[in-house]
Amino acid sequence: MFKISISIIAVLILLLAIYSSTLVSIDYFGDDNSKLPEPRHEMRMFHEPSPEIRKNEIELEKQYRQNDVSREISKIDSILKNLENKNYESVKTDLEQERLRIQNDLDLDLKRMDLDMLRMNP
């Protein structure tokens, strides 16, 4: 009799465990939670900017480059006019200033890249 009661209790505990696990799985995989959260396509570290911030940075960079290109075109047009008018001294000074500006831009870009590399390494 004792063995039968122990086996009945064991079977009841087993049925109760199966029933509770079924309820938990229905709650977890039910209709409300049928959509699992979508994984992020782009995993990023905590120190990296969010995609929205990065997008804004790229847009600003794009505007800067567009302004820079239009400025370069206007300088070239000015140099061409000076060459047509045979104003060589003005062309020489413009080219010297352009050379200095390009050198300064290069130095700044190199420093920015160095800082970016330092920022990547903890």
Overview in brief:
It is rod-shaped and about 120 Å long.
Explain how this protein is built.
With 122 residues, this protein is an all-alpha fold. It folds into two domains: 1-31; 66-120, no CATH class. The protein has three helices and no strands. It has helices spanning 2-28, 51-84, 88-120. The radius of gyration is 35 Å and the shape is rod-shaped. The two termini are 70 Å apart.
List the defining traits of the structure above.
122 residues, 2 domains, rod-shaped, mainly alpha
- The fraction of residues in strands falls at under 5%
Which consecutive residue ranges, at least 5 long each, have pLDDT under 50? none
The N- to C-terminal Cα distance equals 70 Å
Structural class: mainly alpha
Instruction: Tell me which oligomeric state these chains represent.
Output: single chain
Task: Give the helix level as a range of percent.
Answer: over 70%
N-to-C SSE series?
HHH
Reconstruct the topology from this structure.
Elements: H1 2-28, H2 51-84, H3 88-120
Helix pairs in contact: 2-3
